[in-house]
C-alpha cells in the first residue's frame, strides 16, 4: 500500500530530510549542500517541486458538450460600459490614522541634477504591466505652501464638482461569472484608476552617498543644532519669557528625539536628514521644524505618553503586522471598523474623545518608531496600508475633524517616516477626492501612493509584502499564532504564482532517493526524539494552499513511483468558493517514493493568485 514502509530497508536514524524551499519551482534535485561523507550509502527521502499547466478540465468538458454559442452572445453590450454618472462628495476621505509624514503635502520636491518629467503620474494602479491602460494626459504640478490638512478644509467649503472619469468608477470584486459584459465593465473601471509611471525610492542616509549640496546642508544644520544645545535653546524655549536670567544660567542638557540623542552619533544624522528632506534641504527651515517638533513633544507629553494605558479598544483599527520585502514594518489602518457606531462614538463624538484617540494613535506610532533602526544603512521608515473597505466615507463631520487634526500633527512632527502608502479596497469617492487634490501634491508625495481597487488589493500587497507576511484577511497566509496553525509561521516562505483563466495548474512535490555519500545526511539510526526512532523513508509532508477568492476546483493526491502501488486520493477535486476557508492546511504520511500532486483548476475568465508552502517532518512510530 502507499503508506507502508518497504520491508527490505533496515532501520536507521537521520536528521529529518530537509524540505525544499517553497520558492523552488523546478523539478530538479533540491537545493542541498554537497559534502563528502565516508560513511556507507544509506537512502533517505528528499523532495523537489515542479509546476505544470494545462487547459481547465471544466472548460474542456463544456467545449465538448455544449453547442457553440450564438455570435451575438459574445459581443459585449455597449450599454454596460458604465455610462452612468455619480455625484462627487465635496468632502475628503477619512484618514485620521494616516501617518503620512510628508511635510506640507504640497512642498516642492528637492531639485535634482536631472529632474523627472512633470508628466510622470506617480499614483500606482495595481494592474499587471501587460494590461496597463495608456498613461493619463500630462499634468502640471502646482507647488503651493499649504498643508494637506488645509486643502481638506478648503475642499469642505467647495461646491460638489462634476463627476470626472475617476469619480464614476464602480468597484469590482472577484466573481465566478464569465460574461463578456462584466469583463468589459471591469476593464473600463481599472482604466479609470490613476496609474503609475514611477515609484518612490528611498534615498540613502549614508554620508558618502549624499551630494555636495546635501552634505553642506547637513553640516549647516548640525551647527545650528549644536549652538541651540549649547545655549539651552531647546530646553528653555517654552519658559524663557517667565525667567530669562535663570534660563541663561542653566547648563545645556541632552536633547533626544524618538529616543535618539541629537549629535551623539551617526544615528542623529539620519534624524536630521529626515527634517532636511522635509524642507528641501534648506537648513534654516529644517532647524525651525526641529525646534517646533521638540516644543510640541514637550507640550504633548510624549515621554509620559509612552507609559500611559489608553486601553485596547482601537487595536483592530490600527495595528502593526509583519514586514515588507525590504524589511519595513507594516502598519495597517482599517477604516471599516468605524462602521461600528459604538466604536465611532467612543472615538470621535466630542473633542475630549478625539484627543484621546489622537493620543492613542501617536502612542502606537511612537512605540513603532522606537523599534526602527536609525543607523545610516538601517530601516527607518514604515510601510503604511490603508484599508478603505466599508469606510464611513467623507460625510462624517467628526471624522473629518479628527482627520485634519491628525494630519496636521503628523505632517509637522513626523517627517519622512512613510516608505510607501498603499490604499486598498478603494471606493469610487476616494478616487474622486484624489482627483481633486492631486494637482496640489508634490511629485515626491504622489510617488509614495499606491491605489488598488477591491479586485486588485491582494495582488497589489504581494508586490511589496511577502504572502507569508500578509494577514489572512487581506489574501495572505499570516495568522495570529494563538488562533491557528502551529505548523507554519511568518518565517516560513510561501510561493506565489498566477493561475491563468481557463487553465489547470498542478504543483508536484516529489519525494525521491538520495545517498548520504554525496549529501550531508546523518544515518537515521543515530537520531532519536522523545525515545522513538525515525523510520527510514517515512516522513510527513505538511502543506498550506490558498487561491485568493477561490472559485476554483482543488484536489490533492499521492502518486507512488512503484508500478504495483496505487495512487492515494488525499482530497478529491472540490469546488472551492469565496465562502470556504481561505487557507487549506493538509498533511500526508509518506511511506514510499513518489509525488504529491496539488491541482487547481480555474474555469473562470479571471486570473487567480495561488499561494502554497510546505515542509517535511520526520515520522515517529
TrEMBL record:
One GO location term (cellular component): membrane
UniProt keyword annotation of Cell inner membrane present: no
InterPro entries: CRAL-TRIO_dom, CRAL-TRIO_dom_sf, CRAL/TRIO_N_dom, CRAL/TRIO_N_dom_sf, GOLD_dom, PATL, PATL1-6_C_GOLD
Entry's Gene Ontology BP terms: cell division
Molecular function in Gene Ontology: lipid binding
Family matches, as SMART domains: CRAL_TRIO_N (SM01100), SEC14 (SM00516)
Low complexity: bias regions: 1-12, 44-60, 160-187
Family that this chain belongs to: Belongs to the patellin family.
Protein name per Swiss-Prot or TrEMBL: CRAL-TRIO domain-containing protein
Top-level taxonomy: Eukaryota, Viridiplantae, Streptophyta, Embryophyta, Tracheophyta
